[in-house]
Amino acid sequence: MTAPLQEIDFDHTDGAIGGPKKVTVLGAGIAGLVAAYELERLGHHVQIIEGSHEIGGRIHTHRFPGNGRSGPTAELGAMRIPAGHRLTMHYIAELGLQNQVSEFRTLFSDDAAYLPSSSGYIRVRDAHETLVEEFAGGLPDRHYQDNTLLFGAWLDASIRAIAPRQFYDGLHDDIGVELLNLVDHIDLTPYRCGRAGNRIDLHAFFSDHPQVRSFCPPRLERFLDDVLDETSSTIVRLRGGMDALPRRLASRIRGEIVTGREVVGIDVRDDAVDLRIRHGVRTFTRTCDYVVCTIPFTVLKKMPLTGFDQEKLDIVHQTKYWAATKIAFHCREPFWEQDGISGGASFTGGHVRQTYYPPADGDPAYGAVLLASYSIGPDADTLSRLGEAERNAVVIKELSVMHPQLRRPGMVLGVSGRDWGTRHWSRGAATVRWNQEAALREAERREAARPQRGLSFAGEHCSSKPAWIEGAIESAIDAAHEIEWYEPRANRVFAATRPSRSEESA
Question: Tens digits of per-residue pLDDT, 286-340?
């Protein structure tokens, strides 16, 4: 349950393996909620401190008004779950949310959606010839089979749609001849998809041919994972709002979830962790036996941190987050259906980048939601430097080239957005380790997750699946495991020396 804003008072007592421990969890996002939930299942006593007045962290469902009732919803944070993310799907089932699981339609999944070309916007169903021509024009020779060129063209288009423009500029040449030479010897006919069979199911292809991955540059491995996840046909959402997941988790936690308390400093000692906590104009110190910190490192590095070793301080300050900006329009009607678009997303380009057409779960009389702009990284930073009115005007100007219906009087009833890069509680949307090889990514993950005596860490930045709910859950399970096995005065046995819970259940 969410506790009222009252003073926090945990008695300071020594915990030990085999007996209940008192644990303070910092942050009521998915990582903090899962850590608390699992610690309570292990028999420990937990209290959550959240700096903002919201729970859910970077899951944020906005509900537009509808004549005094809740109108259509917009996901301004996490909005999708790859069906292969087994931990996330496990919690959805355990929390009784299976009946809310619904298909999430993504980029290029609707043949009537748009993407840009050198000659203007074109429909997905008509894009193959233009994409192949433009892609093949950049190759040293064009002796490849038609299916191979179609594969390369759609892989290039997918990378262009997902990567920020500056990042894509450095990737374009990485779809090289070595990869195409290998693919040219594989029958791609089973992977042609779309109504006219003019696209390639990249996710299915790479799943069936993992050896092809070795011909992609090692530094692109993580990025390719995200490209395949985002363009997969097996992605789901929670009908009625993704915030059902954190809300249901919070309802299962017995301990208090205290909001409006901002941690502004941490001091790790041999036998305790001292937290400096701000509540309004007052700041006080709380001494804790055990702490799980899910605060993003972008926020943590702004605080005084004492008792941390130098390697830990280095990773806190060096971990990079990318911004993300989402802008949703509450529209009078789903005008895109007049263009034959029934869902999915267009790659818009420009500042807007991606535009999604969410399904209407509620009463159509209350209008529809258009996720007008979803941008990440430097593209999001550019939008964040604009004022709200100017930002909305830029989005409408760019998007109305593709969707002129936006300029009809009374079409846009309201606008809501979230800029995760400048939000005080996150200072970024997610950790992105796209440009790193696997060994370096794993070394940074381990260092990010490594405890400091009684202080453990969780969050997508501590996981092997950064930027996904799956990563937050994975790290929370491991942090709960660490607390379970930690002995403050004995040998200091950490779960890092044992298989993690997430690894044991793999």
Answer: 999 999 999 999 999 999 999 999 999 999 999 999 999 999 999 999 999 999 9
Question: Which residues belong to the annotated binding site for substrate?
Answer: 80
Q: Which residues are documented as binding site for FAD?
A: 77-80, 263, 460
User: How does pLDDT run across 44-91, given as a tens digit for each residue?
Assistant: 999 999 999 999 999 999 999 866 667 899 999 999 999 999 999 999
The domain of 99 spans 61-103+324-419
Within 10 A of 340 (CB to CB), how many other CB atoms are there? Answer: 12
For residue 401, is it within any domain?
yes
The pTM of this model reads 0.89
Q: DSSP H helical segments within 231-373, as ranges? A: 244-252, 297-300, 310-318
**CA nearest 9: which of 199, 279, 243, 404?**
279
48 lies in the same domain as 68: no
Q: What is the DSSP letter of 265?
A: E
Task: Enumerate the known binding-site residues.
Answer: 77-80, 263, 460
Residues 17 and 40 in one domain: yes
Domain tally, the chain: 3
Q: Could you tell me if residue 427 is inside a domain?
A: no
- Are residues 408 and 388 part of one domain? yes
